[in-house]
Design goal:
Order of helices and strands: HEEEEEEHHHEEEHHEHEHHHEEHHHHHHH
Oligomer: single chain
Largest sheet: 6 strands, mixed
Structural class: alpha+beta
Radius of gyration: 34 Å
Number of domains: 3
Helix content: 40-55%
Number of helices: 17
Shape: elongated
Distance between the termini: 48 Å
Length: about 425
Amino acid sequence: MKSDQTIIRKTLMEQFNFVTNLLGIKDKNIIILDVLDAGPHKEIIAKLDYPAPKCPHCQGRMAKYDFQKESKIPYLECAGYKTLIRLKKRRFRCQDCRKMAVAETSLVKKNHQIATIVNQKIAQKLIEKVPMTAIAESLAVSTSTVIRKLKEFKFKTDLNYLPEHMSWDEYSFMKGKMSFIAQDFDSRKIIAILDGRTQVTIRNHFLRYSRQVRNQLKVITIDMFSPYYDIARKLFPSAKIVLDRFHIVQHLSRAMNRLRIQIMNQLDRKSHEYRAIKRYWKLIQQDSRKLSDKRFYRPTFRLHLTNKEILEKLLSYSQELREHYDLYQLLLFHFQEKRADHFFGLIEDTISCVNPIFQTVFKTFMKDKDKIMNALELPYSNAKLEATNNLIKVIKRNAFGFRNFDNFRTRILLALNIKKERTNSVLSRV
């Protein structure tokens, strides 16, 4: 009988040791007493006990007293179930000063209820683009616990360094409020995230850098937001300002689209011409060299036509539309081929006789001629920063927005400035 009980006890101990190893509990002083199935989660009953240490107050002799009321410690999921450790900690009493002490463990910090490994997991998930509510739910902790962990991250600005090539842009923090972002063009590291994009905000930030450091900057790429021009020139007098090529083409494209709408609205809304120009507007905006030669049935025309044939029909409805379309395509060609002289020469020759919509865009281009010339001559753009802005949008969308700018800023820096370790997935071999 004794031997059977011994075997059963040994088997149970082996099982509990397996559970300990599975959970990654390295403290040998923690003894698992039982594992309970509580329905949606598992509960592990354990105790923390070891020989009495010296008194932390008087260094006298201590003796075992009793066990503290069990601590409810949320732990990592095990086998798809949330895990809760009910840990009873041994209390000790000093025989000299009569003061009490509680057993300590690496599983959880003193006077804490959150396991150390759970805190580490929170930090890991904060680096990813996971909402804080989702992190809290998955780890069975409160949202305030996740926020406290987020606030522990501190990012200091290195005022002794600026990259040689920097990109400026803005992103939406909340509806009606834009924030400023600056990024290293080469390394994609975020240099600054500011609560606002006014000249005062940008100036106050970059004036923290010495003039010597600011003179290290050689190129700034920006979009066509005009307030950036003056402040960039004042802060970084030795840097070249480069307009983003995408925004230049976008200005041209929008002018062409507005002209198309203007001409279309002059036609009868029930006419075939109106419906055709409205239906196939993308063909007018598209680069003529990229038009498809494939023939399809077009219900609007009741014919099998290629995109080029449809475009020819659209242009035949208006002479003004044809002239401006040819000009638009020629400007696109010169710009894409980086022929700055031909591009601005064509603008100067036609600015007096084109539609007022095009005139406005041409005047903007002539005013920013030096910056557009830099865009055509230098291999820099805001493409990398626009990709970063898309990731910021993902973070914002996953979190359903942010009310606190500092929390939003920290999440962005965690997700984009901290390099995550990459591990190669191991595939099973048959």
